[in-house]
Amino acid sequence: MQWFKGAVVVMSAFAVAALANGCSSKGGGTSDAGDGGLVPSDAKPDKANTDGSGNCTPTSGLSCEQCDVTGFTATGQATPEGPHMSGACSAGDITAFDTACLSTSSDQTSCFAWQNAEADAGPNCLNCIYTFQTGATWGPFVCDNQSGQCTINIPGCVDLALGQTGQENSTSTGSCGDLLNASYECQDYACGSCNVAADGGSDSASFDQCLGTNSNTDGALNNECKSFADAFDSASQCAALTGDAGLTGDLAGCFPADANTGYTEQELTNFVNYFCGPAN
Q1: CA distance readout (Å), 255 to 38, 198, 232, 248, 258
Q2: CB of 57 closer than 8 Å to CB of 106
Q3: Cys-Cys crosslink for 182: which of 16, 74, 186, 271, Cβ 3.0 to 4.6 Å?
Q4: What is the mean pLDDT of residues 189-202?
Q5: DSSP readout, 18-65?
Q6: Are the C-beta atoms of 82 and 275 separated by less than 8 Å?
Q7: Global pTM?
Q8: DSSP code of 191?
Q9: How many whole angstroms separate alpha carbon 83 and alpha carbon 60?
Q10: Rg value, the chain, Cα
């Protein structure tokens, strides 16, 4: 089973540390840094529909698809914080964060107010929930240092749940989270430009079309990013996600129960608690 980004996008991007307007589910950046052993050496990006001239034709039918990914290299993910990072967030902190930043009554003002209060009281919880792509560790939300856009750290959650943090960025097999992160990054590289609506928000329908989530032949998942998706699907360390059995325990909490509607407020709260909250 392929875990493609189109199935786990939950909200649109937002300004620096303002979760009130949401975030996406990509696993990291798309810089040209070394791949850190994220994918096997023979799993190189494919070129979609090359015409012999070095150009390619988008297979999704969308001009926003970046079908030539020869310049893409996956970026190694940082070690995830947790599970249940000691001393970071109390149960009260998690509840206050939910109310201010995740609930239906929250907005950007309430979320910023929570962040300011946390920063004044001692930033342990704030710094666990919101982390930067350049940081030594990643929490539940990973934010771009320049744009401030934050992403849900699903690959990190997977490695915590599978006990594979010691395998991350290995020069041999890497962790399951590494392979998922690399696949997500390629999907972002190929289809990120399609995930922008006219009002500046996200366009999940176009993003899904670019990925080709409902097709066996069209889109980035089946062409230029296929090698990354295949590497994830075939990896023994990802058998718990790619097998026929349903997800259970902590691993189930890394993904929304309903991939079509995305994470519920409670699921996101549980996700944050898994990284930064007290042990149950």
Answers
A1: 21, 28, 16, 11, 8
A2: no
A3: 74
A4: 83
A5: -GGG--B---S---S---TT-S-TT-PPP-TTB-SSS-B--TTS-TT-
A6: yes
A7: 0.81
A8: H
A9: 39
A10: 18
C-alpha distances out from residue 84 to 122, 154, 159, 217, 277, Å: 18, 15, 14, 41, 5
End-to-end CA, the chain = 30
Q: What whole-number distance in Å separates Cα of residue 75 and Cα of residue 118?
A: 31
pLDDT of residue 82 exceeding 70: yes
Query: Any idea which residue has 């914080």 for tokens?
Result: 81
User: Is the pLDDT confidence value at 161 over 90?
Assistant: yes
- Cβ atoms of 81 and 138 within 8 Å: the answer is yes
Q: What pLDDT, on a 0 to 100 scale, did the predictor assign at position 51?
A: 41
Question: Which residues, at least 6 apart from 59, have a Cβ–Cβ distance to it below 8 Å?
Answer: 48, 49, 65, 67, 212, 217, 218, 219, 220, 222, 223
pLDDT tier, 268 (very low <50, low <70, confident <90, very high otherwise):
very high
Q: Average per-residue pLDDT in the chain? A: 79
How far apart (Å, rounded) are the C-alpha atoms in residues 195 and 64? 9
pLDDT at 26: 40
**What mean pLDDT comes out for the span 93-112?**
90
d(CA 198, CA 161): 38
Determine which of 6-10, 62-66, 109-113, 178-182 has the lowest per-residue pLDDT on average: 6-10
- In the beta sheet, which residues pair with residue 151? 24, 142
* Tokens (6 digits) for 57: 């034709």
